[in-house]
Specification:
Length: about 120
Amino acid sequence: MKPLHSSEITKFLERFDDFKESEIKELKIVSSTEIVLLLTAQDRARAFDWVTVELNFSGVSDAKLIDESKLAYLDTSDGLTLLKEGDSFAFALGHYRTIISLKDAQLYIVSNSIKYSEGTF
């Protein structure tokens, strides 16, 4: 797994077109402070081939999660938000500019760090 640094977030989102039309495949609570999210997305770096992306959130301080049986019904047409604000990273379903505003999202995670890995579809 590679750490996602705040300086890389914009390029990371551009590479996967903000994860628009992606599919969240798995949401796993590893512990009270660690959550793993597995999703599929089209990768510009691979001629828009579909790939899997695993996001590992460590030091989770706040989250709004949904039951895994409902993941297939989430609408990702607006993409996903990844941002860094202060000492926190934030992830949310939809497009948001601040951590405070993303707390209205159906699904969000606020953590101290994010790591990611890529795999085949």
